[in-house]
Every structure is written in structure tokens, then in C-alpha cells.
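Hello Y.,

Per our agreement to keep a running log of every chain we model this quarter, I'm adding this entry. I've kept the format consistent with earlier entries: sequence first, then predicted structure.
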Amino acid sequence: MKTIRWGIIGCGNVTEVKSGPGFQKARGSELVAVMRRNGKLAEEYAQRHGVPRWYDDAESLIHDKDVDAVYIATPPSSHKEYAIAVARAGKPVYVEKPMALNYSECQEIIQVCEEAKVPLFTAYYRRALPRFLKLKSLLDEGQIGDIRGVNLRLYQKPSESDQKGLKQWRVDPTIAGGGYFFDLGSHMIDLLQYLLGPIGAAVGFSSNQGKLYAAEDIVSAAFTFENGAHGVGLWSFSADENLDSTEIIGSRGKISYSTFLELPITLERDGSVQRFDIPHPEHVQQPLIQNIVDELLGIGESPSTGKTGAMTNWVMDKMLRRV
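Predicted structure for the entry above:
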């Protein structure tokens, strides 16, 4: 079996446990190079994780002849630049979520990848986690009948850093594309589209209630799926409680789950309640990385692509009234 040799652009915190080791542990996969603008930090990462080469500029990693595919783990503001550079070098692209600052940038990335005839994947790794594969199987089996609607709620208390006014790139729209809604809400929206199919229409309202940073801190939205189901969502990041809850209502029952907390999936129907407690793996991106490696080797298929990632950006742009 051929081995896919990976390079990482942006070996920051997200790559320490969530993703980086997954490239080394997946079958048919190897992590051979990492890049960070701070060369000392790149070198330390390489030594810590047993990676043979490190760089402090992206072009050197992209054009390394021993790198077959590139994972872009930088903030969204540089996703388009790096993804296009990787594609033009003729190498598969795996980009962190959200895929770009907006849907328009996503379309540019897709176009260049198609012209270069290289695969494009987005890091919505919940599409490959065993917990959510079980959830999808329950829905596909018709355990709650026909899907009628969805109720999304994500409330968070302001972090200490935000209360102190410390700079956080995740709430700088010029770097992140939006606030925590872009960072966290994107996972929730993408997962729903994986579970129930594409969202066909969406409208929303957003504002900054807490005035702790430049980005929006509350988003409310209504949306409909192409299959006819309806949905509503409320994301508040200046609330007085923490809550992570999604309910999928069907004609014969209801399924409840948490997107971010490791709480059991709850299935309610016919007066009974079933709970499914399925732990996440140590490296949560590893199952999706395995899917991507398998596709690149011609023995599988990834559930998360550039086109599915772009659809999540389209929905968020609609909810924020940008398109």
C-alpha cells in the first residue's frame, strides 16, 4: 500500500491532540513536515511529535517533493491563499473549518482545485466520529419517523479572556470570518446537513449584545432543509449559562444530542427512552483523516469535501445576511 505523506501548514494548538497525531496513526498515512511562521515553535513541534522536517514558510513545505498532501490548520483568513497555492502545486488540500471567511472565498478555492484536478476536503470531523455515525444510522433507519423539525441551542458564558478584553483571533471577523458562531456554529450546521441533507433556505438576525469584542455574539435563525424539515437556532455567547442542545423532532419520536459535550444521544419514542453513550477517540480528527487517506488511496470516500464545507459557509452567510 502506498503511504500518503502529509505536511501541515500552521501547527498550532488544534494540531497538538485533535488532528496532528491522527496523520501519524491513520493507516497508510505519515506526517513528514510541519510549518509555522515562528521557526522555533515549528522546530519544537517537530521534535515533540517526531516529525522529520519543519519550515517557517509555507511555500517550502508546499513544494517539498516528499509531501504528497497538505493540511491547512491556520485561521480562516489565510485558508484561501494557502489552499490555492497547494492546489496549484498539484497536491490534495485538507483545510480546517470554517473553510474560508465566506462562501465566495470557498467557491474560489473549489474552482482552483477543480482546474488543478486535485481533491479538496474540509475538517468537519464530526461526520466521521462513531457517536454521530450512530446518530445518523438511527435517523436513516426511521427510528423517529419522518423528520419534522430541528431545535438548536448553544449558550455560553463569556470567557475570562473576553471579559478582560484580551485579543482573541476567534472573535476578530477579519481573521475568523465572524465570532464564536463561525467557530462553533459551523460544526453544528455542518453536522445537521450531514444528518438530514442540505439546508435549502436560511434567514437570521445577529447583533453584539455584550460589547466585549468586534464580532457578533448572538445569532438567531430559521431555516428549512431540502427534504421539507424546518429548523430554528439560537447561539448566544454572552449568556448566563452554558447549554449545548440539539433536538431533532420526527413524526414518531425525538432524538436529542450535544454537539460538543460527550453526553449520551437520547432517543424518545413510544413512551420509552434509549440512551447511546459512545466515547470519542483520543484524536477526534483521526477517523476523518482515515477516510481522506482511504479516498486518496482509492479504497474509500470522505464524507467531508470542499463542496460540503462550502455549503456550511453559505448557510452561515445567509444567517448573517451577507448574501
